[in-house]
């Protein structure tokens, strides 16, 4: 079944409230959609979003990679050479992981539509998924208000962004801890905002206060792998790599060297579902658990990530709330309180009808 065409579109989607981390403040996303068409008319969709400060990919670079080397690598080939096509997407250019992820998702969507099964069925799993809700970094008071609102909306795990001004981080978590039920788990994400010794000091203080912290993401700069290991070896709290993990090669190094306890896999960083699968399997082989996460990105690519997470046995944590931040139409996922419900239609799915978004006055 020959791939006859590849088209690319993009649109700007505003966020309901600004998304603030130690790295950036976003008020909208650029959503890139890629559509491949097979000779029998079946289409496969993929999506991506640029994140300059994380992947280095821009809107222009994603469009250029998709319309250039990626299109040239797959047009005219048979989609039934599925694994070879996925490999060609990865090898046709260096970098450009967001564009590669969009193409990889579109191929997975087309192939599972061709064999008429939902993507998670093709991948071989149907785990129940629930997501944390992210609380952007802000004043302790605003973050506490947002945390209470998320708990009232049914979220049982909160992902708290810290690291923007480390001197406030203990106060931020103390105030949130006091304002919400103690059974609510907290995931902290410093987005590279701490230095290694400072991270150990902050985490030890948090441990002494008995906050219900499930793990802490990326305490130190992405390049500082020695710092990451320094922190991991000195605290009881589990430490997760995010910005330090892009590729399969990164995963091999991180898990073999015991740099961290956990990995955060995102399709935009690794280049799609096939690479994500390899990373999760490498981690599994060394006893390292994984989370599926996402950038601020379109619902469709988060949906693809959710199908992957439902199928891979080593994805134990789910961070899939990005679509709830978008002030636009829902696509392939349904949210009910903290539950994430996959489409049962072939491929990644089609547009769903019910939607529970975050409240615009939550922060
Ligand atoms: Mg992170």
TrEMBL record:
Transmembrane segments: none annotated. Coiled coil: none annotated. One of its GO terms (molecular function) is magnesium ion binding. It is an enzyme of class 5 (isomerase). The keyword Lyase does not apply. InterPro entries: Dipeptide_epimerase, Enolase-like_C_sf, Enolase-like_N, Enolase_C-like, Mandelate_racemase_C, Mandelate_racemase_N_dom. Binds 1 Mg(2+) ion per subunit. Residues 140-238 form the Mandelate racemase/muconate lactonizing enzyme C-terminal domain. It holds the Pfam family MR_MLE_C. Its cofactor is Mg(2+). Signal peptide: none annotated. It comes from the Bacteria. Its EC number is 5.1.1.-. Keywords: Isomerase, Magnesium, Metal-binding. Substrate binds at residues 24, 134, 159, 294, 296, 319, 321. One of its GO terms (biological process) is peptide metabolic process. Mg(2+) binds at residues 189, 217, 242. The active site is at 161 (proton acceptor), 266 (proton acceptor). Belongs to the mandelate racemase/muconate lactonizing enzyme family. This is Dipeptide epimerase.
